[in-house]
């Protein structure tokens, strides 16, 4: 059986189960910053409109990180049942619980530690399972989808939102325009960079019918905006992944920050949301 703890690659976001505190602090800062950005706010609004939840659904935020999605749902939805939020990192789960308490929604969310490949919850427990930037970091996306299928009630729905990180690019003044450093970013920050291209097939093969999808492009042209909060994380996470030295990472980020200050910045990535309904 696949387990996230078996992961041995360089993706630092895939190793939060045993990451050091410096790495976890950097990851948490990025998760929170992008969660507050209007791009993510629009994405959440879009799939919440499609879900059209009543007050009776049971919801699982799988791979919750710091609980950005669970907290957003708790504020937007008048749901009778407590939202369940699960992540493999005890550190991020504890942070999520603290933030939920600070934001006044702790009574609406249960934060738990668990591996998305094998969740200790009964079959048919949930009406909706949300995976917001989870599948790009897991060992085996198919296993995680089958676990979601098991956890869902008949006719339940799964929401998968993630990046197509093969399209991620940060332009630089290098002769290759940043192609080489883009490859290093792909190795260090994502395990399944093409997973969203496979979602129609993955849904079909793992017990779901594709019902809805939407495509997005997160592009900063001239000055860093959505991608601005990623830059400080590179100083920590690229050396932790072993793809750059600390000096190389700092020089790389310095150049990107100067490009933004001078109106010369460019970074972009495609993102997709897919919603599937459980097949009986």
UniProtKB/TrEMBL annotation:
Gene3D superfamilies: Vaccinia Virus protein VP39 (3.40.50.150). GO terms for biological process: methylation. The keyword Kinase does not apply. It comes from the Bacteria. Transmembrane segments: none annotated. Keywords: Methyltransferase, S-adenosyl-L-methionine, Transferase. GO terms for molecular function: S-adenosylmethionine-dependent methyltransferase activity. Coiled coil: none annotated. The keyword Nucleotide-binding does not apply. SUPFAM superfamilies: S-adenosyl-L-methionine-dependent methyltransferases. Residues 60-160 form the Methyltransferase type domain. This is Methyltransferase type 11. It comes from Caballeronia glathei. The lineage of its organism: Bacteria, Pseudomonadati, Pseudomonadota, Betaproteobacteria, Burkholderiales.
């Amino acid at each position: 059986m696949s387990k996230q703890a078996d992961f041995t690659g360089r993706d630092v976001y895939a190793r939060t189960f045993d990451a050091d505190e410096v790495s976890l602090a950097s990851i948490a800062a990025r998760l929170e910053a992008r969660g507050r950005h209007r791009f993510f706010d629009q994405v959440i609004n879009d799939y919440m409109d499609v879900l059209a939840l009543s007050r009776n659904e049971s919801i699982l935020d799988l791979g919750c990180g710091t609980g950005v999605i669970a907290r957003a749902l708790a504020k937007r939805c008048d749901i009778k049942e407590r939202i369940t939020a699960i992540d493999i990192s005890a550190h991020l789960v504890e942070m999520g619980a603290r933030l939920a308490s600070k934001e006044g929604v702790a009574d609406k969310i249960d934060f738990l530690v668990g591996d998305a490949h094998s969740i200790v919850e009964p079959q048919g427990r949930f009406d909706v399972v949300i995976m917001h930037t989870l599948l790009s970091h897991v060992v085996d996306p198919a296993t995680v989808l089958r676990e979601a299928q098991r956890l869902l009630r008949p006719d339940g729905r799964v929401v998968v939102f993630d990046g197509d990180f093969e399209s991620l690019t940060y332009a630089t003044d290098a002769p290759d325009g940043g192609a080489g450093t883009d490859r290093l970013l792909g190795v260090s920050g994502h395990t399944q960079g093409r997973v969203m291209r496979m979602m129609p097939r993955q849904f079909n093969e793992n017990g779901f019918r594709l019902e809805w999808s939407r495509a997005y492009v997160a592009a900063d042209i001239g000055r860093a905006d959505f991608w601005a909060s990623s830059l400080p994380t590179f100083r920590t996470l690229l050396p932790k992944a072993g793809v750059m030295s600390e000096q190389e990472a700092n020089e790389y980020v310095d150049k990107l920050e100067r490009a933004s200050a001078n109106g010369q910045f460019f970074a972009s990535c495609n993102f997709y949301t897919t919603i599937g309904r459980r097949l009986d």
